[in-house]
């Protein structure tokens, strides 16, 4: 087949997290499951850590697509996952260089795992397979694959934001980053803002140049940096929300229900959200219906100190707000840390009058889109969305956008949302719903893979470099 023909090989996806029966909270896993259910292919992810890691893959399931795991030992889990991925890359890419905990040994473990994953992929990849690397756990995999002689088309999709140029400088491996990125054919980011940040970072690399058609070249390899905002399976989420089991919430009549659904992560702005709700309770008219704010936030990455800290801080904040405002028959904040089934979450997202999606930094935030899909178009609720969620680029015209750091105007937005007339709610919801259903998970998968399939092979790249 000529090199510029879209090819017909298999799709090989690699992500750290892979469902092993239980489906944990996290946008990536749901998105990849939905993408692979449509496209078919192979999904490779990390096994639970064991005493000894071995090369190769283990099959763990098949159906619409096949699932395999690579192995990882306990020390690597600490260094690669808890360490370099979640104590260096995650905080840095979420604009929190102050939380960065760098240890050389953690980076060594990251390199070892990235190399093992690359060897495993190289072993199974056939010449026409598309390789699609997901997220910050595997920034080096493509580079390793190239050193193993793999010439397949390789894409990266980064689910998290790309840091601004100053923050990138705090990465001890900043000098290696351009080579890691240029080993892909397509680097996919969530938003235009992320593309601008990455382009800015690449400009500092003297070996990288931008070509007339907007693609990039580094040492003879041509690659693209583009944004593909991830979506959800809106139809099936809407259906799940309609069919969800009724949950007895024991709310007072006419009490507005506010809802937040997040992993417990410092990037989600939960303390700021609680404080804005507190400010709203202070400004609320006496005698108006008393609102209930349910925050579902199951623990995440609890072996990392910053996650234990945020959990403690949030519990203290919820306790003190409830202490100040609660009554015998009213608890303003219900903070739920235990796991809640996805169908129940879908039902709550349908029932909520206001969704609070107010991260301090977030690649996209799928909950914003799930809320819109779940709501009843005839009597929809209002989305309060942070400027700092990637979703804000697509949803700014229908959501109430807030700056989560500005407590007073955030509190006013809560008041506006609670009191918004039906006509305005319907108008805003219709705009958002149209976008969420149009730019859904299938649209995301198809647009990314279409671009990757059409990427020039390295052979062409060499020619274009001359
Ligand atoms: P992140 O990927 O950073 O966790 P997203 O908002 O993009 O954030 O994705 C979170 C996904 O996980 C959504 O699909 C959401 O519905 C799901 N989720 C989050 N918390 C829960 C929960 N407590 N129970 C069930 N699903 C959850
Ligand atoms: C975000 C990341 C994913 C990750 C998920 C859950 O969505 O972008 O890569 O899988 O959070 O985090 P965890 O560390 O539990 O996999």
From TrEMBL:
Pfam families linked: Glyco_transf_20
Residue ranges that the Swiss-Prot or TrEMBL entry lists as coiled coil: none
Domain of life: Bacteria
InterPro entries tied to this protein: Glyco_trans_20
Family from the record: Belongs to the glycosyltransferase 20 family.
This protein's name: Trehalose-6-phosphate synthase
Organism: Jannaschia ovalis
């Amino acid at each position: 087949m000529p090199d510029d023909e879209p090819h017909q090989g298999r799709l090989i996806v690699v992500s750290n997290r892979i469902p092993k029966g239980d489906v944990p909270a996290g946008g990536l896993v749901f998105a990849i499951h939905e993408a692979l259910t449509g496209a078919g292919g192979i999904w490779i992810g990390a096994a639970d850590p064991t005493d000894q890691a071995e090369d190769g893959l283990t099959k763990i399931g098949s159906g619409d697509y096949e699932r395999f795991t690579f192995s990882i030992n306990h020390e690597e889990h600490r260094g690669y996952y808890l360490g370099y991925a979640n104590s260096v890359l995650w905080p840095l890419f979420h604009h929190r260089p102050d939380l960065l905990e760098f240890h050389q040994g953690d980076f060594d473990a990251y390199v070892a795992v990235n190399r093992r994953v690359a060897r495993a992929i190289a072993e199974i990849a056939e010449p026409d397979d598309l390789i699609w690397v997901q997220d910050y756990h595997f920034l080096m995999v493509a580079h390793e694959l190239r050193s193993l002689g793999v010439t397949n088309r390789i894409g990266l999709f980064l689910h998290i934001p790309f840091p601004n140029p100053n923050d990138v400088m705090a990465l001890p491996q900043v000098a290696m980053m351009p080579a890691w990125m240029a080993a892909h054919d397509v680097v996919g980011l969530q938003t235009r803002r992320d593309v601008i940040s990455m382009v800015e970072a690449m400009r500092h690399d003297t070996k990288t140049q931008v070509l007339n058609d907007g693609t990039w070249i580094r040492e003879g390899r041509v690659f693209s940096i583009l944004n593909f905002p991830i979506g959800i399976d809106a139809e099936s989420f809407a259906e799940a929300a309609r069919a969800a089991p009724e949950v007895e919430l024991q709310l007072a009549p006419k009490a507005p229900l506010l809802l937040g659904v997040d992993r417990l992560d410092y990037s989600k702005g939960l303390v700021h959200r609680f404080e804005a709700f507190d400010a709203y309770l202070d400004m609320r008219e006496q005698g108006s219906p008393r609102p209930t704010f349910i925050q579902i936030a199951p623990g995440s990455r609890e072996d990392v100190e910053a996650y234990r800290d945020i959990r403690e801080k949030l519990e203290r904040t919820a306790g003190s707000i409830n202490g100040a405002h609660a009554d015998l028959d009213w608890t303003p904040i219900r903070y739920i840390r235990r796991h809640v089934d996805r169908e129940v979450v879908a039902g709550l997202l349908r029932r909520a009058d206001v969704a609070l999606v107010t991260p301090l930094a977030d690649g996209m935030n799928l909950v914003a889109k799930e809320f819109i899909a779940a709501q009843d178009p005839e009597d929809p609720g209002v989305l309060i969305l942070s400027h700092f969620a990637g979703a804000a680029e697509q949803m700014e015209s229908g959501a109430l956008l807030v700056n989560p750091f500005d407590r007073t105007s955030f509190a006013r937005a809560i008041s506006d949302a609670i009191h918004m007339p039906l006509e305005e709610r319907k108008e805003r919801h219709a705009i958002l719903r149209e976008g969420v259903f149009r730019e859904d998970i299938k649209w995301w998968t198809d647009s990314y893979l279409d671009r990757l399939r059409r990427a020039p092979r390295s052979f062409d790249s060499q020619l274009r470099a001359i």
